[in-house]
């Protein structure tokens, strides 16, 4: 199953992992998209956008209009959410048009610690 991990970690740690993978030539087992803070993660992954990801997960390429139909929302609002998800690398543009969420599962990781 192709899984993406959405995680909260400092940019310095993300870059260190990238450099390690580059040097060893061994890719990570899962795709990762990192956010610098939990607040940034939740700013990008709103409830409406999470709903979009749920209907797109494993669905293959779909048009924005079809994505809007699947979540029963206005096409313009869905277009705005899809643009944000494309800009953050969560969604991809499909060959031949439309968008695709190229994963079958999503895992969200972050740690809340006492200050």
Task: Give a verbal description of the structure.
The longest helix has 14 residues, at 11-24. The radius of gyration is 15 Å and the shape is globular. It has helices at 11-24, 38-44, 47-56, 64-71, 75-87, and strands at 3-8, 31-35, 92-93, 99-100, 105-109. The chain has 115 residues and is α/β, with parallel strands linked by helices.
Secondary structure layout:
Layout: E1 3-8, H1 11-24, E2 31-35, H2 38-44, H3 47-56, H4 64-71, H5 75-87, E3 92-93, E4 99-100, E5 105-109
Parallel strand pairs: 1-2, 1-5
Antiparallel strand pairs: 3-4
Helix pairs in contact: 3-4, 4-5
Summarize the structure.
The protein starts with a strand and ends in a 6-residue tail after the last strand. The longest helix has 14 residues, at 11-24. The protein is built from 5 helices and 5 strands; from the N terminus they run βαβααααβββ.
């Amino acid at each position: 199953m192709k899984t993406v991990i959405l995680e909260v970690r400092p940019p310095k740690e993300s870059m260190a992992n990238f450099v390690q993978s580059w040097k060893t030539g061994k890719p990570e087992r899962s795709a990762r998209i990192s956010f610098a803070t939990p607040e940034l993660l939740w700013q990008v992954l709103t409830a409406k956008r999470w709903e979009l990801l749920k209907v797109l997960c494993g669905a293959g390429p779909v048009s924005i209009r079809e994505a809007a139909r699947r979540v029963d929302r206005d096409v313009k609002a869905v277009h705005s959410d899809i643009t944000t998800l494309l800009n953050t690398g969560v969604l991809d543009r499909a060959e031949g048009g439309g968008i695709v969420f190229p994963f079958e599962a999503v895992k969200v990781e972050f740690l809340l610690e006492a200050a």
